[in-house]
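quick one, 497 residues, struct below
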Amino acid sequence: MQNFLKINDNDNVVVALNPIPAGESLAVEVQGQTKSVTALEEIPAGHKMAICDIPEGGEVIKYGYRIGNAKEAIKAGAWIHTHNVKTALGDLLEYSYEPVPVEEVKTEDVTFMGFNRPGGKVGVRNEIWVIPTVGCVNNVATEIAKRANAFVKGTVEEVIAFPHPYGCSQMGDDQEHTRKILADLINHPNAGGVLVLGLGCENSNIDVLKPYIGDYDENRVKFVVAQECDDEIAESVEVIKGLIDYASGFEREPISVSKLVIGMKCGGSDGLSGITANPLVGRFSDKLISKGGTTILTEVPEMFGAETILMNRCANRELFDQTVDLINDFKNYFKSHNQTIYENPSPGNKKGGISTLEDKSLGCTQKSGSAKVRGVLQYGETVKTPGLNLLSAPGNDLVAATALAAAGAHIVLFTTGRGTPFASPVPTMKISTNSRLAGKKSNWIDFNAGVLVEDKTMAEETEALFNYVVEVASGKKVCSEAAGFHDMAIFKQGVTL
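---
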């Protein structure tokens, strides 16, 4: 196997696929000619090596785009990382809409085995969810789910509680975010039945929450107020028995993949993220969209530096303007808290070979594939338009994955070069960027994209990933589900009373 990869013809760096020892010579295409470049020092796997001299202040090019500027003169063969490259990004920018042609194709429909819900929605799970309105009843909700699981039957898969610390002592947008996300989850079609558990005196009590929920099926959604019960646990378990009776009437049946909504998120990136897992998810996204399906890309701070690629794929000027607002609103959020906009790559990202935010963002946005942007969603807003959508949410794994679920995603595809066991309210499929991680953490990783730098082609793995997603949509559990993990987190920005 080749020890390095030059991603784009215009790059002045290569990425080490395996550690490159000091003194090893590489035959590399530089400006149309094959050139021998000798490593001046060991280049760790996933990290970058210069293939030509780069002057101080010169551009470091990867993916065909600038990922930063040299802090000092860099010799050909040198290791390029945080010690000698810095971000070239500024604060708020002016953008112009320069649409690029996007080839749109339609491909043959495929079906998965899912649950048709009243009103035209579909689900990939038939679970009973216990949604607390406030953190004060978290332990009660967890105990209710624990006891109620003894009564699961038929096609009902599990009773799950989703504790969270919010719902009271919040102000402004924080309170609105909590109410919207809770309402979105209550309405999510992966839940065949929902118990909304309130305390009774909280700011986001059930009566306040109901207008956010909107019209609902009284057979599917039930409410219990703990302060109004003699024994809120016993009463809730009885209510859930009725929800199980209702939800067990749903059966899996063939449904077009055009009904699927898939969220896309990455975390704990390494130098292979933008070479294997992220572009693979992008190919998957294009394939699903070609069949009429929907994908959602989020983690706005990890679009910084690559945002113009998305802006110029917007289907119209209105969506371009909304994407500009999406980016600048998040930059202003950072500035309002006196935080550096471009200080994003985590210690794990840097250890894996990510040097700047541009480096991470150019790899991250490859999950969007090549489709046109058809929708731009605010935090807590649900998807309405088929095709590729952009969602306002931070990079934090749990917050972003929860936001994707709340926006309507049936499944979240989560690419990672470092590994993580977390879950979200919907099946969260972990896709490793490298085979070492897939082998070491087989209890976390569902799909290995690392084979793309070994012996598999992108076309082969796109088909394999698509088929695997169809299996998961049809009931196959991902690792975090099999482990019994179910997480949620709400985006908090402001004051706690």
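The radius of gyration is 24 Å.
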